[in-house]
Amino acid sequence: MPSLDLPPLSYAAGTAKLPGSKSISNRMLLLAAMAEGVTEIHDLLDSDDTRVMLTALASLGIGLESKGANCWRVRGAGGVFPVKQGELFMGNAGTAIRPLTAALALSGGQYRLSGVQRMHERPIGDLVDGLRQIGCDVRYAGKEGYPPLEIMPASVKLAAPIRVRGDVSSQFLTALLMALPLTSETAVIELTTELISKPYIEITLNLMARFGVQVEREGWQRFTIPGRQRYRSPGVLHVEGDASAASYFLAAGAIGGGPVRVEGVGKNSIQGDVRFADALAAMGAQIVWGENFIAASAPATGKLKAFDLDLNHIPDAAMTLAVAALFADGKSVLRNIASWRVKETDRIAAMANELRKLGATVEEGTDSLAVSPAPSLRSHVAIDTYDDHRMAMCFSLVALGGVPVRINDPGCVAKTFPHYFDAFAQITAPVIAIDGPSASGKGTVAQRVAKALGFHFLDSGALYRLTALAAMKADVSLDDEAGVAAIAATLPAEFRNDRIFLSGEDVTEAIRSEAVGNGASKIAVYPAVRAALLDRQRAFRRFPGLVADGRDMGSVVFPDAPVKVFLTASAEARALRRYKQLIEKGMPDNMRPLLQDIVKDLEARDARDAARPVAPLKQLPDADLVDTTTLNIDQAVAAVMDRVRRRLPFFNPPVA
Ligand code: DC
Question: Cα separation of 439 and 598, whole Å?
Fold first, then answer.
């Protein structure tokens, strides 16, 4: 996809599930590969950078077995890598090339490591210097100080401490720490400079300890790995959610009202980037910390405050603050961020360029960035992303300023978060929830509104109907709540070009039969069925937006929908519509129920829907009533569009 146009957004609220942490995923994979025993890693990040690591480990002779989505079993080598020769492609994955270089330098084999062009511009000299001090044979195949690298077998002597710089990338220290236990000798590392990004070293030490290797640390200057320690698999491990990725959602909550809740990280996270939430708090955002979640909302005053912060401890999440600064009440300063210059791109320069395009005044320092917001954001700006996933994710927040923004090369998010824009849509894409009783005409109206706005459309009733039909076809009794819920959870349904398919069969008409309608009504009361369909319904929320029709769209499925409409009509009017429909369908006079019987039937159904304990049908306090008793379809559509315009003033729908 060459570019992605984000619509103007006016709010953000809801819950985001985070992908696994990149830093933890790649460290765990390498440690598991060097350990004795089998490690089962759950919730592993599935992205470009972890694929680079998995592919490399496989080619080095490590047994890897996929156990379904995001779960891998790693058969550890119990020491150095069994394959002694290889060419490894490292893409642009810093978390793969640095620690693998160190581990391979101690493996007694002959290897070549290369990457994409940008990887060959990212320094690795400090690590190579450290490895050479203990006798490793690591050579530059291209430019001195940069990949590609050639590694030869060598005999290693650990007599003197390894002296290494810590002010370019903390990953050099991480690489040495993780690899040195391969030697089984006592190893000492001394830093010759200040260490940057310290929390990443804490992740490294924490994970090494889980694999049974202890490191003695004196301040951030000297690290001793006592000898005769070996990595041993701890068995089963879970990867935390990615705290850097959490920053985009938390910032969205702070800018767009919130609350936005990220799940998968919390107050006990081992990732330093959770401290991003403190920076947001310093901007006035309201933060709630849970065991396994963090939530952010806009400041009580409504306006984010400018900040001046040293962000050395959260270099990645700090990028999100640079964009959040566009929404602050004055000039913000990001300090001590020199490492940005050697990341996926020169992030200080890239950030300055793109923020300026939006109208901000930016002062670029060698290791700092000052951002003064423009009085109003420029609209329709095309943001370049420099093949840097974080540039793409950060600048999506601009749309929350109520301006449309174009993200060039959005696919670069695949480095760490392949489904980022879907997840972002889940909390920001406008949902127009249209609930109401049966035969109120809401299905037709909702579909027309979706067409007029160019939005996606969810007919949630169809999902209940499809579940009932699938259960009937599979001979599962509609009285069997668990059985029907299991069918709902894996429903092989597809919505394509106004047609509905079940296991590939077009069932658009079949699900409208009386029998299926009655079945749907029956199974819709089961909490397990409703729960099984929840995520599926929420997944319909994608850019540019969604019109969802049903009974509980505004109350349960999309409680944070910015537009909620309760569409109804008197029972008599609805009965008359249904009666006319039956005539249109060609039902003969003698088969047709009496009008007053249809009225009674509808009234009974309304009462049942309103009385059921789960997701009862009712008009919510924040829903706009549209009574269509005296309206035709065009008028009903116009009435809903009027509510949309009033509730989404920033949104500029191409009004039909
Ligand atoms: O809107 P419909 O007639 O296609 O709905 C079919 C059945 O599913 C109906 O009995 C109500 C139920 N339903 C529900 O309980 N919740 C929804 N969001 C949508 C439909």
Answer: 11
User: Ligand 1, atom 4: nearest CA belongs to which residue?
Assistant: 461
Q: Which two tokens stand for residue 233?
A: 């698999």
Q: What are the tokens at 579?
A: 């009666």
Q: Ligand 1 atom 6: the closest Cα is on which residue? A: 461
Provide the pLDDT for residue 652. 60
Q: What's residue 654's pLDDT?
A: 43
Strand partners, 563: 432
Amino acid letter, 378 = R
Is the shortest distance between the CB of 461 and ligand 1 below 6 Å?
yes
With the most atoms of ligand 1 within 8 angstroms of its CB, the residue from 458, 460, 602, 620 to mutate is: 460
For residue 421, what are its two tokens? 């824009």
Report, as residue numbers or ranges, the catalytic residues: 316
For residues 16 and 11, give the distance between their C-alpha atoms in angstroms, rounded to a whole number. 15
Pocket of ligand 1 contains residue 109 by CB under 6 Å: no
Q: Which residues contact 613 (CB under 8 A, 6 or more apart)?
A: none
Distance 553 CA to ligand 1 centre (A): 11
Query: According to DSSP H, which parts of 511-621 are helical?
Result: 514-523, 527-538, 571-584, 595-611
pTM: 0.89
Predicted confidence at residue 591, as pLDDT, reads 84
Select from 282, 275, 284 the least CA-distant residue to 255.
Answer: 284
User: Is 551's C-beta closer than 6 angstroms to any atom of ligand 1?
Assistant: yes
pLDDT at 651: 67
Q: Let me know: does 387 contact 412? Beta carbons within 8 Å.
A: yes
Q: Which residues of the chain have pLDDT under 70?
A: 1, 650-656
**Amino acid letter for position 161:** P
C-alpha to C-alpha distances, 17 to 72, 324, 428, nearest whole angstrom = 20, 21, 14
Tell me how far the alpha carbon of residue 147 lies from the centroid of ligand 1, in angstroms.
59
Tell me the pLDDT tens digit for each residue of 517-526.
889 989 999 9
Position of tokens 């765990």?
28
Q: Is the CB of 558 under 6 A from ligand 1?
A: no
C-beta of 550 in contact with ligand 1 (< 6 A) = yes
Give me ligand 1 centre to Cα 251, in Å. 36
Query: Is 464's C-beta closer than 6 angstroms to any atom of ligand 1?
Result: yes
